[in-house]
Amino acid sequence: MGYDMIELTKDGSVATIKLDRPKALNALCAPMMAEVADALSALEKDDAIGCVILTGSEKAFAAGADIKEMSNLEYLEIYKTDLFHNHESVARFRKPIIAAVAGYALGGGCELAMMCDFIIAAENTKFGQPEINLGVMPGIGGTQRLIRAVGKSKAMDMCLTGRMMDAQEALAANLVSRVVPVDELMETVKEAADKIAAQSQPIAMMTKETINASFEMTLSQGVQFERRLFQSMFTTADQKEGMAAFSEKRKPHFKNK
Ligand code: CAA
After folding, report:
1. Low-confidence residues in the chain, pLDDT < 70
2. Which pLDDT value is given to residue 2?
3. Protein fold of 6-197
4. pLDDT at residue 1, rounded to an integer
5. Where in the chain is the domain with CATH 1.10.12.10?
6. CATH number belonging to the domain at 201-247, selected among 1.10.12.10, 3.40.640.10, 3.30.420.40, 2.40.50.140
7. Which of 29, 61, 141, 142 has the maximum number of C-beta atoms within 10 A of its C-beta?
8. How far apart are CA 88 and CA 100, in angstroms?
9. Given its phi and psi angles, is residue 181 left (phi above 0), alpha (psi -120 to 50 degrees) or beta?
10. Exactly one of 108, 109, 141, 142 is catalytic; which is it?
11. 76 CA → ligand 1 middle, Å
12. DSSP per residue over the chain, as a string?
């Protein structure tokens, strides 16, 4: 499938999806999100890819769901088509995915970044959940994921006032893992993605799955889930290789099996 609203590139074992609707500040319209879902589905099946980067432009990661596309929709129409189903493809993606965020990450843009495994932000980033200014609330997981990232007080503040949060505030609030100068963003994220992609792919996927399971489980269920998957890793050649490489003082060569 050729893409009109995203750019998909591959460099080594890392794929980058760049949202590319600059005139609309990457507003997340349905056709663009269908392309994102299609690309992710192909990348999940592509054994050569070990990590994905989701990014936008220096001005906007994404300024939200497409307000113009949404404004005249009716309830039954969006219920039947399950509005935002394709947006959730980022959360459903099973391989590691990093959000490289610069500029505006508002509404659905902030929600999309939060669906990724972690966020590295440029110094000019502005996060926000301004939906309340439009007479709605976040609708792509913002009320649920923001509170888990930053806690109740700041999540309420962001969603009820609709104000923006800069990159340093987002770092202090644990919404992002790192903040870097704008011109170092892609290089920093690529370095992290290369490191992840060099690990054993199934082990990285199981690690991601286990961390995400913590949102759905009690502590004892989560610890049990972790133990079972940890034990299952001893069926893999990559566990044998990783531990042998340590003993032999050399770099491991993982075979993803
Ligand atoms: N949807 C559709 N179009 C958008 C958009 C959006 N979310 N955000 C920006 N655009 C469009 C603008 O309409 C404008 O298009 P035209 O040139 O055709 O008028 C173009 O992008 C450039 O935007 P601005 O002229 O407004 O640029 P600016 O630099 O003056 O302001 C901004 C930037 C502060 C981000 C401002 O564009 C803005 O406030 N955008 C909307 C942010 C927002 O409310 N996001 C939440 C969307 S709702 C949502 O996401 C719901 C959900 O959770 C599911």
Report:
1. 1
2. 86
3. 2-enoyl-CoA Hydratase; Chain A, domain 1 (3.90.226)
4. 64
5. 201-247
6. 1.10.12.10
7. 61
8. 18
9. beta
10. 108
11. 25
12. ---SSEEEEEETTEEEEEE--GGGTT-B-HHHHHHHHHHHHHHHH-TT--EEEEE--SSEEE--B-HHHHTT--HHHHHHTTTTTTTTHHHH--S-EEEEE-BEEETHHHHHHHHSSEEEEETT-EEE-GGGGGTS---SSHHHHHHHHH-HHHHHHHHHH--EEEHHHHHHTTS-SEEE-GGGHHHHHHHHHHHHHTS-HHHHHHHHHHHHHTTTS-HHHHHHHHHHHHHHGGGSHHHHHHHHHHHTTS-------
Ligand 1 pocket mutation pick from 26, 32, 67 by most atoms within 8 angstroms of CB = 67
Asked if residue 252 has its Cβ within 6 Å of ligand 1, the reply is no
Q: Give the list of residues 6+ apart from residue 24 with CB closer than 8 angstroms, or none.
A: 63, 66
From the CA of 133, give the closest atom in ligand 1.
44
- Tell me which residue of 24, 58, 22, 20 sits closest to 39, measured CA to CA: 20
**pLDDT in the model for residue 190:** 98
Residue among 214, 209, 199 at smallest CA distance from 230: 209
Q: Whose CA is nearest to atom 40 of ligand 1?
A: 63
74 is an active site residue: no
109 counts as catalytic: no
Q: What is the pTM of this model?
A: 0.97
Active-site residue, 65 included: yes
